[in-house]
Amino acid sequence: SKMGFKILKPKGAFYIFADYSKISNMNSFDFAMDILKKVQVAVVPGISFGTENYIRIALTVNIEKLKTAAERLEKYISF
Q: Rounded to whole angstroms, how far apart are CA atoms 22 and 36?
């Protein structure tokens, strides 16, 4: 993606599993908590699914909320 995440395409799911290893070397829990603290976007750490260096981003909210979340994630990455 333009933000630097490597995205695994979902197979019928309502989420994105994003590899952030080129963005940060934090573990997935710390990375998810840092995003929440700095830009108020909640993501799920990949370690919850047995995989580090990934976060899960749910696509179950309306498009306006997704756009806002994407803008905030872009802001986070530019820090």
A: 19
